[in-house]
Design a protein that fits this description.
CATH class of the domain at 4-89 and 159-242 in chain B: Alpha Beta
Structural class of chain A: mainly alpha
Strand order of the largest sheet of chain B: 6-7-8-3-9-10
Largest interface: A-B, 21 and 30 residues
Helix content of chain A: over 70%
Number of helices of chain B: 9
CATH architecture of the domain at 4-89 and 159-242 in chain B: 3-Layer(aba) Sandwich
Oligomer: heterodimer
Strand content of chain A: under 5%
Strand content of chain B: 25-35%
Largest sheet of chain B: 6 strands, mixed
Amino acid sequence: MIREFGWIDVLYLVLAMRWTLALTVTAFVGGGLIGLVIAVLRVSRVWPLQAIAVLYVQAIQGTPLLVLLFVFFFGLSIVGLPVLPWIAAALAFSIYAGAFLGEIWRGALDAIPKTQWEAGAALGLGFGEQLRHIIVPQAIRMAIPPTVGFLVQLIKNTSLAATIGFVELTREGQLTTASTFQPFAVYLTVAFLYFLTCFPLTQWSRHLERRSYGPA
Amino acid sequence: MALLEIEKITKRFGTNTVLDDVSLTVDAGEIIAVIGRSGSGKSTLLRCINGLEPIQGGRITVDGVRVDDKATDLRKLRQQVGIVFQSYNLFPHLSVSRNITLAPTLTKGITEAEAREIAREVLHRVGLEEKLDAYPEQLSGGQQQRVAIARSLAMRPKLMLFDEITSALDPELTGEVLKVLEDMARSGMTMILVTHEMGFARRFGSRLVFMHEGRIHEEGPAARTLAEPRTNELETFLGAVLH
């Protein structure tokens, strides 16, 4: 049955946005945990650990996200595991985000001068103490803008989950288009909703970039 | 027993030998001025003493503890040996007070309040008590370097190493840092300074060590060695830095 694209459809799109955000948050938390481990492995002074981290990052960054998504969705069901689109998407996006966040955070840790590590060592602090009290607090400041930048990418990239039937914003747009035959109006609305989510984040990241040290 | 004993140490970076058969004994209360051209190994020597650089041969003993031994607790060693760097290396995200209290609270198990009292006292010694709650970027270079000295002093070291600590400062700021060094010298602190401040070396140095091509080329009482160098290399070097 074909009907007009109306406010009720807009409401459904806004509601579908929940799933876009749920997938983003899940991937960001999951990817953040993986990324933390990857970043710390990369700055550790133990080469096998560094190698594991490099391998992980290279493998994931060298693979299209869409393929990763298919691997989890189709691949796991072939080996007999029943995979829901939601689970496959959460796994694929976490693993993807882990590689990118790990690399961003490694870059931030690397950007802190070696002399800061050394000053900590010279005061008798161990590797973990130097990392926690001296390096990480300074690196966080550097890492926030690119991290928020990646978060914006992540929000937009969750639209790929539409391809495995996960009903988030883009998939909901496809379904609405199918029943209204008004793709232009529908996808313009979808685009606007993505923009409304991403724009404030970009602004916030710019604001954070301008802060400096000193008494608050 | 000597506070510091360096016996025939060798330090290589790859195939490049930076320290070659260097031996030096320092007693408590001595002030050793280490001079020499850049690349002569003087900074590396300091860094080996507190274990920031591993050595490939020989041995270093601080207060009876082998620095080059894998089993040595570097954490304990570094409570005994403080080092101040040319570029201050304060922690920019922490207040002056926290810069000083961080290591004592983490490594000595004292409370933040106790550590803050220590911070107040060591800042008083470098004449910056009023900067307790300032941030490094609010201080001049000379003040930052004095805070760095205070940060080291807060660990109550037995031996202080200074790596060209006035070299990054404008001439009008070196005076305030040298004054702090002079006060420490008078209080009997054992110090090894890599320095270009020949005036300080002459007045306060108990001994002068001239390094040349990774070796100790000449060594002797500071004032006399500066006035009457025995080797051509030291004479040439002094001629270059004093004129």
